[in-house]
Amino acid sequence: MPRSDYGRGCDASSSKGSASAATIRLDPMSSTFFCAAAKLIVEVDGGQHANDGDARTRWLEARGYRVIRFWNNAVLANTEGVLSTILGTLRA
Fold this sequence. Notes:
Strand content: 25-35%
Order of helices and strands: HEEEHEHH
Radius of gyration: 12 Å
Shape: flat
CATH superfamily: VSR Endonuclease
Mean pLDDT: 75
Largest sheet: 4 strands, mixed
Strand order of the largest sheet: 1-2-3-4
CATH class: Alpha Beta
Helix content: 40-55%
Number of helices: 4
Number of strands: 4
């Protein structure tokens, strides 16, 4: 999923406007996409997070962030579906 697609989705989801960033640092980890207005983090994971994804999600959620995760191959194979899920989460 091109980062620009996610940014448009984040911006379009908020009537107040949103700020989005790609690959931000939330100590002690980095996140793939962040929509500040919605406190939503979208993680796009490869095999490097196969064992620590749940711990990362718990750490972020404990700090008030909503987290949704997708595997790299799901993003590549079903970009529209991933974007639809992100937009649905932003609107919820």
